[in-house]
Hints:
Order of helices and strands of chain A: HHEHHEHHHEHEHE
Mean pLDDT of chain A: 97
Number of strands of chain A: 5
Helix content of chain A: 40-55%
Oligomer: homodimer
Radius of gyration of chain A: 19 Å
Largest interface: A-B, 81 and 81 residues
Largest sheet of chain A: 4 strands, antiparallel
Distance between the termini of chain A: 31 Å
Number of helices of chain A: 9
Low-confidence stretches of chain A: none
Shape of chain A: globular
Amino acid sequence: MTNQDTKKQEILSAFNFRHATKIFNPTKKISNVDFTFILETGRLSPSSVGYEPWKFLVVQNKEFREKLREVSWGAQGQLQTASHFVVILARTDARYDSEYVQQLQKRVKNMPEDLLETLKPRYKIFQEEDQRLFESNRALFDWASKQTYIALGNMMTAAAQIGIDSCPIEGFNKDKVNKILESEGLLEDGKLAVSAMVAFGYRAEDPTRPKTRRAMEDVVQWIN
Amino acid sequence: MTNQDTKKQEILSAFNFRHATKIFNPTKKISNVDFTFILETGRLSPSSVGYEPWKFLVVQNKEFREKLREVSWGAQGQLQTASHFVVILARTDARYDSEYVQQLQKRVKNMPEDLLETLKPRYKIFQEEDQRLFESNRALFDWASKQTYIALGNMMTAAAQIGIDSCPIEGFNKDKVNKILESEGLLEDGKLAVSAMVAFGYRAEDPTRPKTRRAMEDVVQWIN
């Protein structure tokens, strides 16, 4: 078997290893270096037009986790046992003409002023006409939120590749979670809102049911 | 250096290797076994409540690619040069009481009838109240679309880990792409719609600009 074959097998093993872990071993903590690695795969993830419209809150504080638990039925065991618990925020202002995007393009992407001016009308058409993101605040937010799911997927897969378990969570009341986060001053005055959550740690026990997925021929269609 | 350290370094190298490849080497094709591997990481990706609300169209037909190119400004070079070009569809009917979800839960997840009945009201509350997905058709579709971005991210990262380039694409007119797909009978009578596109292949040349990302301290906040 070649090196490449081994690599592919290892990656697929990680996909099969990963499952939505409900209860983690509360005594087993992820090392700092491993958790930094996981966050790094989120940070380095791609996003549409490079807007990186995300922020990762690592909630380690017990009282804070307890508050979240009251409004998150899908994170009951995870909030109590996860080694690391991340609330993924998405930006509400990921539009071409926002202060956030302007600053990102200038300071992070180092785009010169004239390039910025050339791109602006194109990004406007992209967001307004092609994707129709200005139909509602929700449409724009959901678009930013989609990008965070790339980072979410990457972080879970990267974790699985080094034997760390995870659970993605949407089972919470969005409005109530946002209220909690806002009251703690974590939403940058409404520029951020909750997109999803994800817990990391080491499983307390193996899953009882085998992974199921639709068959390849049901999810893939070739147009030759 | 331990095995784990090597693995982490290799994964981060893949994240740094990956960039939005605009032009692929048109003579270099991805092998069937490698492309099947990439698709497999999409198929095995997690999705909210396990709905797998996606389908992957692999568009290899030249005339078909040309049709898409006319309405996809962001895929001009990719459609002409990519070894494999995927249109990712998301379901428009990913709601708890749809035929699709019922069948998936019975036939794929092998859930017994009584469990299905127990879960139904919970999934209803989840979708209707917690996530407010029934506000509009768009809200429900965007939710399904978010799940496809997990698969999108996983496929690109898996590809990068075996030295294959990719480019995620949102630069197209959604309505026009859907019209083309519908006219070819690819949308299951409106049960599917375009979510994103992604091209795979081998880069024609290295990127001219280095990868930029916001700093770790700007994207991560710890609550200790």
